[in-house]
Amino acid sequence: MDDYLNVLSIGVCMKGVCDKRKIPREALAYMLDATGAPVCVLLPFSTWAVFYASLFIDQASVKALGFKTGIQAYIRAIPYCFYPILTIAIVFLFALGVMPKLGAMKKAYKRVEETGKVYSDASRKYNHDDRKGYEEEGNIWNFVISMGVLVAIAIATSNLLLAVVVSLIVCFVLYVPQKVVALDDFFNLVVRGFADMLPILILLVIAFVLQKVTEGMGMTDFIISVAKPLLWGPVFPAIAFVLVAALTFTTGSIWGMSAVVAPIVFPLGAAISANPILIMAAIISGGAFGSHACFYTDATLLSSQSAGIDNMEHALTQLPYVIIASVLSVVGFLICGFVM
Questions:
Q1: Which of 65, 67, 301, 319 is the most exposed place for a label (fewest CB within 10 A)?
Q2: pLDDT tens column, 208-221
Q3: For residue 133, what pLDDT is reported?
Q4: Taking a C-beta distance cutoff of 8 angstroms, is the pair 48, 280 a contact?
């Protein structure tokens, strides 16, 4: 499960539907982006889960909790991932009309009401080649069955690698006989999919190397000795969320910044008796914030492209809702930091 899949597929399917109902493209882009990474981080069988689980299980404070696998630790942190949970709640209320239209989003709805234009003049250049829909025949069961097998095996065995392998076999049985995909194309796609995961593997290697280097240099101990008198365990998860969110927002490197921060944040949190589960949730939430809110991340760019609007228009129209979710997330981490 991947946020790009959501953004690209739903954008194509719903663009025409939203246009007919005079819903501004800015609203579509916001809903695409808000249901991408924030949903994926809450699923223990997503690409996000695999990355963060591998990152967390190597931390001493996480291992001390008795988790046998990284996925178990990740699942334990999911209920405290406040930013993605709040973002999904806000976008749901937005879709129902309960959440008011704010800032640039309000102006977009006013534009549609006054002119009937579902996108602005600045976004016209992205819609010259708009197609009404796809005419090719397809079978939804080819998607449902393969994804159902993936989810079912992942939950039943807690082994995502096994689930992926079995799901690929199911795809082969479904697609090749129906000539949905040619035999050579199927194996080419498998190899390409493996190649797409190489950057994630490289990030993991860098994270583990960085951890060993910082241990050898004594950097972690130095940072702890300097920061420990200035920090307080109950507020540390909130600080970790703000730190990761700020780094991912400014750099656009979601998993890279998480990999850099984790080897330092976890030992520092352990030194001041901060809850490691909340620290995991804070890092996950900060990464989800960066993917959703940063103006130039892949998810934001794909959301605006899929909806057919200018990227800055999308970023600015969703900004008020991003701020609301992030402020409430800080409050949530502060409350849980004192309670847990």
A1: 65
A2: 676 667 667 766 56
A3: 45
A4: no
